[in-house]
Amino acid sequence: MGLNSYSFRVRYAETDQMGVVYHGNYAQYFELGRVEWLRAMGITYKSMEDNGIILPVISLHINYKKSALYDDLLTVRTRLKSKPMVKIEFDYELLNESGELLATANTVLAFMDKKTGRPIKCPDYILEKLED
Predict the structure, then answer these.
(1) pLDDT tens, the chain, 132 aa long
(2) Burial class for 82, CB neighbours closer than 10 Å (0-12, 13-18, 19+)
(3) I want to staple 108 with a disulfide (CB 3.0 to 4.6 A). Which of 12, 59, 94, 100 is the partner?
(4) Residue 91 catalytic?
(5) CB atoms within 10 A of CB 36
């Protein structure tokens, strides 16, 4: 299914004294990838929340391969793993400017009704965009 790439530069605040990206920041990088994947389809988290839908992460798995460094230009590639139902699953690759694979990841998120906190099926407007 649809692949989206998004590039950004590592900020100094994301690194330790050796200029290496702190491992906890990778989750934010994959969130950027996911948000930009949705935005490329014309959907924003804000619009979903305004329509009463929240999308909490219920699973995150990261495999670290090589360190990202201060001022590296990184690209996160985000791919939808399968057609969403109540859950939506993404696979990610994080690469540096040289094309070296730094990390891979997988997230699973659940569509939830903001008011009730109960799971709901993927909204039709998202499914329709996936069929385009």
Answers:
(1) 688 999 999 999 999 999 999 999 999 999 999 999 999 999 998 999 999 999 999 999 999 999 999 999 999 999 999 999 999 999 999 999 999 999 999 999 999 999 999 999 999 999 998 886
(2) exposed
(3) 59
(4) no
(5) 17
Kindly state the DSSP code that residue 46 receives in the 8-state scheme.
Answer: H
Assigned fold of 3-129: Thiol Ester Dehydrase; Chain A (3.10.129)
Taking CA atoms, 121 is separated from 37, 55, 69, 118, in Å, by: 19, 11, 39, 10
The pairing of beta strand 73-80 with beta strand 3-9: antiparallel
CB 15 within 8 A of CB 22: yes
Residue of 16, 50, 71, 113 with catalytic role: 16
Distance CA 76, CA 104 (A): 9
* Tokens describing residue 33: 């990838």
What is residue 65's DSSP assignment?
Answer: -
* pTM of the complete model: 0.93
